[in-house]
Specification:
InterPro entries: YjdM_C. The chain is of the alpha+beta class. 25% of the residues lie in helices and 21% in strands. It has two domains: 82 residues, no CATH class; 53 residues, SH3 type barrels.
Length: 169
């Protein structure tokens, strides 16, 4: 029976293409969902410390991308320090960049264009006003390189808002 190339789980597998190439990685339902930014069980991604040593470049690429997603955690930072990729494989891994998943205060995944509600009064620096709790911010934009920031219009001004202070509507 086939096993997930990240965590080793057996069962139904999904083939996921690692862009920009067409190489695929066979993932279990949990890893495939987690790759899309959905929550996974606590400690599940610890399996990356084993999969990063795979002989298959596509598995190394997905491992590198996921480890970068968790680079603020000690175990992932340690694994990234040990991980060596050939220069062309490293370029491939960086081509799509590390995936940035924006989540609201309760963990819901945010998308560009969503409407969020402020869960706290927020003083707007340089704006001279306070954005009140309960204010709806429509048509948000995601800050591409920072999962903790979104942008939106409040009282006619475009501001940066920390995702920890919003809830998806």
């Amino acid at each position: 029976m086939a096993e997930c190339e990240i965590c080793g789980a057996s069962g139904p597998l999904t083939e996921v293409a690692m862009s920009p190439r067409t190489d695929v990685v066979a993932l279990c339902e949990t890893c495939a969902a987690g790759l899309k930014g959905e929550p996974v069980p606590e400690g599940h991604w610890q399996a990356l410390t084993g999969s990063m040593w795979s002989e298959r470049d596509a598995v190394k690429v997905v491992s590198w991308r996921l480890l970068n997603r968790f680079r603020d955690e000690a175990w992932a930072a340690d694994a990234l320090e040990m991980l060596y990729l050939e220069p062309e494989v490293e370029e491939w891994a960086k081509a799509a960049g590390p995936e940035v998943i924006h989540r609201d205060s309760v963990g819901a995944v945010l998308s560009s264009g969503d409407t969020v509600v402020l869960i706290k009064d927020l003083p707007v620096k340089g704006g001279g006003f306070t954005a009140k709790r309960g204010t709806a911010v429509r048509g948000i934009s995601l800050v591409p390189d920072n999962a903790g920031h979104i942008e939106g219009r409040v009282e006619g001004q475009r501001i940066v808002i920390l995702t920890e202070f919003v809830k998806k509507r």
